[in-house]
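Dear colleague,

Following up on Tuesday's group meeting, I ran the structure prediction for the two-component complex that the binding team flagged. I've pasted the input sequences exactly as they went in, so you can double-check that nothing got truncated or mislabelled along the way. The structure tokens for the whole assembly follow below. Feel free to forward this to whoever is handling the docking comparison.

Inputs:
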Amino acid sequence: MSDQNTSPRTEWPLWEIFIRGQHGMSHRHVGSLHAPDAEMAIKNARDVYTRRNEGVSIWVVEAEKITASSPSDKGPMYEPSQSKVYRHPTFFDIPDDVGAM
Amino acid sequence: MYAQMVKSENTDNGPELDAFQVRIDAGEKIEPKDWMPAGYRKTLIRQISQHAHSEIVGQLPEGNWITRAPTLERKAILLAKVQDEAGHGLYLYCAAETLGVSRDELTEMLLDGRMKYSSIFNYPTLTWADIGAIGWLVDGAAIMNQVPLQRTSYGPYARAMVRICKEESFHQRQGYDIMMKMAQGSDAQKRMAQDALNRYWYPSLMMFGPSDKESVHSAQSMKWRIKINSNDELRQKFVDQTVPQAEYLGLTVPDDNLRLNPETGHYEFSEPDWSEFFEVLNGNGPCNKERLEARNKAWDDGQWVRDGMMAHARKKAARAAASQVAAE
């Protein structure tokens, strides 16, 4: 690909935006936006997603850099954890007399 | 509504379609990478983009009054509201993009008239009271439609709606606040408020679109849960809610047939002039030309900024890569 841009219509890359709502919480995906680079993506994210104090920290990730699991894998991917019910504390009956556990 | 007369497409059938319908009926959300019928995807792209375009074009009638707002506080509030409209457009564009359409394609389809935006934004804002009427009536009508859409079947659309609804309530209240001030003001101010209501009442009723009781498109969209209520249902709800608000202001809804039916508890009211609605939708409203010209001008005038910023980003990335190589 040459640097000479014959088509002037070059869309800015898409960025996925993650925001930490308050101190002590994890970042959460809130949406996406277009920006020429990471720095501008953060500035735009501030305007688009935190107009009402929604966040204390912003992460931006270029959308094409994200690898996602495929929805069709849903069954085989998560089935093993479903069949292992003993991984949950409620699997075990503990007598009331024992107290909080 | 913000998405009016959206034609729905039904193209697929077979076991996949049945399984898809089962998921929808069970209230499951459909996510971008999930299988979906081509018609569902197409209809959603059309509906979400039309809604996004409406938010963007909707900035124009209100932007008209930013420089002339009566006080600094009103100006700051209006600026915040218009900024929200841009934000709502962006939330919705990003939801539409998850369906496999690019932002530039969507923008171009708005600019060359292939895609529509709501009829309501083709009416002019002649006085400051119009800004009040838009917040109260137009945003009020939008809320009627958007609140149920928070439960729509497509995940990204539903999530965009949740954000929008949170902010929309500020819009309606700021509009009603302007109307209260005007209605309690001088005789000239009261007349101005009444005039704004007179001009915006029927266009607001048109926002819900014509009666769709027998529309096949509506039936399909409802089956897919991308439309939750019928146009008539929402319009009735809007009238029932708005008439007492007009009475509180001491203003008169411009409809001689308006009356509360004590048996049903609902208001009876006159239909808007649907031929006007179709004229506006077909590009012949009072401001269609002006609105599209303004959007085209903004897009064309901004081209060098978009290109320049992209060029700068590329140059910076290339320099960073080069200095990394040099350091190694």
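Chain B touches chain A at residues 31, 33-35, 80, 83-84, 87, 90-91, 94-95, 97, 102-104, 159-160, 163, 167, 303, 306-307, 309-310, 312-313, 316-317 (CB under 8 Å).

Cheers,
M.
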